[in-house]
Write a structure and sequence with these properties.
The protein has 134 residues and is α+β, with helices and mostly antiparallel strands. The protein is built from three helices and five strands.
Length: 134
């Protein structure tokens, strides 16, 4: 039975589900930041997945990156599966810009997260849902 890690649940909003992954929006208005979490039990690493699930994850990750890049006119898409703080397998997809709060460094720990306002969150969720699920 798939369960989302408590920390991911606390820091994100669910956008929806793809065939394999739950799609989450990180509540940090500094960056367009989506997280994919394969809906499989007890995964920590990609190599623990079946070949078919690995292929599906790659396709879903590529689709999300492509659509986020187009939606936000990203200069670079950062995609990472770190898992140092949250061991559950998850892939970060972050649209980056040369004028963003952390450029050119990784986004972690550079500036404190800036939660979306209610209106900003509604707009970001609607735009991402349209781009990723329509």
């Amino acid at each position: 039975m798939f369960q989302l890690d408590e920390r991911l649940a606390a820091d994100t909003v669910v956008l929806g589900d793809l065939e394999l992954c739950r799609v989450l929006l990180m509540n940090d208005a500094h960056y367009p930041w989506v997280i994919l979490v394969p809906r499989r039990d007890n995964l920590r690493e990609i190599y623990e997945m079946s070949d078919a699930d690995q292929q599906q994850l790659q396709m879903e990750s590529s689709r999300v990156a492509e659509r986020m890049s187009a939606l936000f006119n990203a200069e670079k898409m950062n995609i990472a599966a770190l898992g140092n703080m949250v061991p559950q397998l998850h892939l970060h997809h972050i649209a980056r810009f040369t004028d963003d709060a952390a450029w050119p460094k990784p986004v972690w720990g550079v500036v404190p997260a800036k939660p979306y306002s209610t209106d900003e969150m509604k707009e970001r969720v609607a735009a991402l849902q349209k781009a990723l699920f329509d």
